[in-house]
Design goal:
The chain has 150 residues and is an alpha+beta fold. The chain has four helices and five strands. It has a five-stranded mixed β-sheet. A hairpin with a 2-residue loop joins strand 2 and strand 3. The longest helix has 16 residues, at 14-29. The radius of gyration is 15 Å and the shape is globular.
Amino acid sequence: MPDITVRTTNTTDAAIISEFNQLMAMETENKTLDPTTIDSGVRRLMDKPEYGYYLIAELDNQTVGTCMVTTEWSDWRDGLFWWVQSVYVKSEYRKRGVYRAMYNKIQTLAAKEPDVYGFRLYVEKDNLIAQKTYESLGMVATDYLLYEST
């Protein structure tokens, strides 16, 4: 199997990231995202690197996975957590190490940043396949529940 290439993105990647985000929302939460809003959101993050960044995984000369990384300051730890979000791998490329390659790239990038303390993500409670993947990479479920208000 060819090597999976993982790279940070640029604005020319915005359309594929928006598309993958829409596919992920429909698949995992049965939600339809407004294409204009998601495209604007992707481009805004790209314009503001202090908010985070995206990664793209490529295999067989095509984009097969994407994810977003954002930051959260922890005063308890005097460091940053990097949140792994908006993870999507095309179905025909799952279980081929695409997410593992993206997570390894995140860890490599974090190793160059002295303030990064650890990594977090959230996953749908019924998405057992994703949970197993994250556990296989050494991540553990926490005792926290996620609440939100919009």
